[in-house]
Structure formats: structure tokens, C-alpha cells
Amino acid sequence: MLTLLDSASSSPWYFFGYFLDHRATDLGWLWDHTWLSVVPVVVGLLLALPLGWLARRYSWAYPPMMSITGLLYTIPSIALFVLIPPLLGLDPLTPLQVPIALSIYSTSLLVRVVADGLGAVPTETVQAATALGYRPLARFFRVELPIAVPVITAGLRVAVVANVSIVAVAGTIGLDNLGRLFDQGYTLSVTEPYYPPIVLGIVMCVLLALVLDAIVLLVDRALTPWRRAVRSR
Amino acid sequence: MAAGGAQPMIFKTLGWLTDPGHWRSTPFDTGILGQLGAHVGFSVIALVIALVIALPAGLAIGHTGRATWVVSVANAVRALPTIGALVLLVVIISPHFYGRTNAGFLIPTEIVLVVLAIPPILSNTYAGVQNVSPAVRDAAFGMGMTDRQVLGRVELPNALPLIFSGFRSAMLQVIATATIASYVTLGGLGRFIYDGLAQKDYPQMIGGGVLVAALALVADLLVAVVQRYVVSRGVSGRFHRNTSVDSRVAALVEENV
């Protein structure tokens, strides 16, 4: 640690040099951070699609489902991190708590988004599809779901950007991801400020959030070609 | 620790939470009540400052339709990792304070909390005023109301459901972030989580988690009750079912502004 302080500049702009000095560790943390941000959103979407469909199909299921997911979304992330292991009977420091907590958040957010997105599909469209001979399952996947895509991807963008920020919080309780850079910077700043790891962590988190957001946007574009066709006319 | 399974840990946590000695402060240790007070204190200060800034700004932007870029800038701030911003500000500001003061930690924490709380309130206030039906607004002008009256008596009451959901999502973020403020050696309920972790005292750590979750749920419930009485029934649509807006939909509204 001391040699590191002696050899390296503590200027905030030295963050790139700091990155080069600790490339292997930092890229490892970037990878951890990326999958911790992405996998829970995918899990959340896979769970939210049937749940959102249920909430739409059976109207009695909608209010309780929204209350429960709203309640889960209210619990602060750090509290959820420490509450999950005892509730599931896991070790208090299991690395699984972060993906589980984030999957719970993503599912809670997306159930409402999917239900409302499906609810926004015009009744005439559904009736027209039925009249054309679509059976319920095919109608859901070929008509209702594609029309709900823009609303769902808007929810996915919120979920993925929020996850990048929440994952970093897990770094402060010792789990490996870009949040460890903040932990490192704070530990190294006891006697005098040492900025590079902190600035590097912020830069990498913001870039990761922007890239993931852009990917969701591209997927949204690819899945809804008709929106571009209408716009270009 | 986990060898005993889930039940013992839950009982140990209950034991920690129900021990009266943990609730009172001693000369050496701040108890649960003291940390709860500190937590609520940080949160209230940040929310009041954020409201004073964001509410008038959102109303003005929504009413005039000018300077909407402010809303986009505020929303872009969300991509910033809060914990990173917190650590950076603490490292920058705290060396300027010496002695027995926690201002070096309090000031950066409050800055981060205010910066966090502004975007949801600002963009929801803006969206709420923007979404008032033009027919309603025109009718108000047609009745001879002045600009100020239209804003105060028509647009503001109609925007209240969205403003409340923005405030609720700001409040939850502030309570959550005030918890991680304990990481930078400040008080608050997060103290128990980080101390419990450092001392491998898991009942204390989990008990802290329970307290934070309970605070968030109770605070959200209180504001929901206030909202029920403040928002006009004609606006909230409580004559019909299923028109409530919660913080998650508010997030989408903000995203699409």
C-alpha cells in the first residue's frame, strides 16, 4: 500500500494510470459488476412476464401483486443484502445475496411494467388478432407482447441503470465488483486524499450504465421495426 | 454461523432487537433510538432542501415550458453511483474540518442526499404540470384566472399525485443512501450494519437491516396517508379503481420526459 502511494500520483486525473497499473483486478471487477447488473434483470424479466400476464388476465390478482412488489421495492438495498441470507438460511456473507436481492428488485419493478404494458394494448388489436384466428398463446407472443415492448424496455432501462448503482453499494460490504474501488480509495485516503481509484470507479460505473442502457435501446429498436417505418414516412 | 440453519439466526436477531440495552445510548455507544433519530435527521434535512429547490423549479419549468434541459440534466445524474459520489465528496471535504466535529462527513453526505432527491421531485413536478389537460388549463384562463392562480389553484392540485410519487421515491432513495452514509463513519441505522459486519456480529448486522427496512416502510406509509388527505378526491380518482401511481411508474414517467 505504501509503495503504491509513493510511486503513484494522487491527482484525480491519474485514474487512467491507476487502471493500467491494476488492469487485471479492475477488469475482473468490471466483469463481476457487469454480470451482477445484467443477470438479475434477465431473471426479473423472465419472472415478470408470466406474473404480469397473470395480473392482467385475472384482475383480482392485480392489486395484491402490486402491493407486494411495491413493498419489496421499498426496502433499501443494503438492508435487503443483509436480510436475504438469514431468511433463506444461507451464510451471512454468501456472495449470492447480491444477485438474489437485485433479482427481487428487478422483478418487482418489471411485474408492474409488464402488466401495464400489456394493459395498454388496444382492445381492437387483440380482437382483430382473435378474429384472424390467433389462439391465446400465439396471440400473446406475436401480437400483445411485441406491442408492449416499448413500455417493457423503458422499464428495463430503469432497472439496469439502477442495478449498476446498487451493485456498487455491495462493494462496501466486501463483495467483489467496481464498488471495491471506492472501498480502496477510502481506505487509502486516511492520511491524505488519494483520488485515482475513486474517480476510476465512478468513470467505469457511469460508462457501464451508459453502455448497458444503449444495448437495451438497440434491442428495443431491433424488436420494434414498425416504429421506425412509421416515423420515416 | 450458518451451521445452525435459519431459525437460530432469526432468534438471535430478535434477541438483539428486543434487548433494551441496545435501544438506550450509553456514554460510549449510541443506541438504536439515537441512531434512528440521526437517520431521520439526515433524511429530513436533505428532503427539505431538495423540496425547496426542486418543487418551485419543477412548477416553473412545467408552467412556462422553458428550460426543460434542466430536467434532462437532473435525470442524467441518476447514472452516477451514489456510493462513489459519497466517498469522493467525503475525501475532498473532510480534510478541511478538524477536531470534534462531524461536519466533514455531514456536509458531503447532505450534498449527495440532496443531489439524489432532486431529480425525482423535479421531473415528477414538471411531468405533473405538463400532463394537466390543456382543456382544464384553458378553462381556468377562460374564467379569468391569472397565470399565478392557474399554477397555484389548477395545475398544482392536478399535479399533486405525481409530485407525491416523486417525493416518495426521493424519500426512499434518501433513507437507503443515508444508510450507506454510515460507511463513511457517520451515524444512522447503517451503523449497526457496518459495525455488525466488522465485528462479525451478524445478529447486529441483520437487526440493522430489519430496522432500516422498517423505517423505509413506515415512512412510505406515513406519506401515503398524508397523500390520501392532501390530494383532492376528484384528482386522485378514488371514485374509480386502479388509478394510483406508485414510485416505479413515476420512474418511467421521469424516464420518458
TrEMBL record, chain A:
<feature type="transmembrane region" description="Helical">
    <location>
        <begin position="35"/>
        <end position="54"/>
    </location>
</feature>
<feature type="transmembrane region" description="Helical">
    <location>
        <begin position="66"/>
        <end position="84"/>
    </location>
</feature>
<feature type="transmembrane region" description="Helical">
    <location>
        <begin position="145"/>
        <end position="174"/>
    </location>
</feature>
<keyword id="KW-0813">Transport</keyword>
<dbReference type="InterPro" id="IPR051204">
    <property type="entry name" value="ABC_transp_perm/SBD"/>
</dbReference>
<protein>
    <submittedName>
        <fullName>ABC transporter permease subunit</fullName>
    </submittedName>
</protein>
<dbReference type="InterPro" id="IPR035906">
    <property type="entry name" value="MetI-like_sf"/>
</dbReference>
<keyword id="KW-0472">Membrane</keyword>
<dbReference type="GO" id="GO:0055085">
    <property type="term" value="P:transmembrane transport"/>
</dbReference>
<feature type="transmembrane region" description="Helical">
    <location>
        <begin position="96"/>
        <end position="115"/>
    </location>
</feature>
<dbReference type="GO" id="GO:0005886">
    <property type="term" value="C:plasma membrane"/>
</dbReference>
<dbReference type="InterPro" id="IPR000515">
    <property type="entry name" value="MetI-like"/>
</dbReference>
<keyword id="KW-1133">Transmembrane helix</keyword>
<feature type="domain" description="ABC transmembrane type-1">
    <location>
        <begin position="30"/>
        <end position="216"/>
    </location>
</feature>
<dbReference type="GO" id="GO:0031460">
    <property type="term" value="P:glycine betaine transport"/>
</dbReference>
<feature type="transmembrane region" description="Helical">
    <location>
        <begin position="194"/>
        <end position="219"/>
    </location>
</feature>
<dbReference type="Pfam" id="PF00528">
    <property type="entry name" value="BPD_transp_1"/>
</dbReference>
<keyword id="KW-0812">Transmembrane</keyword>
<comment type="similarity">
    <text>Belongs to the binding-protein-dependent transport system permease family.</text>
</comment>
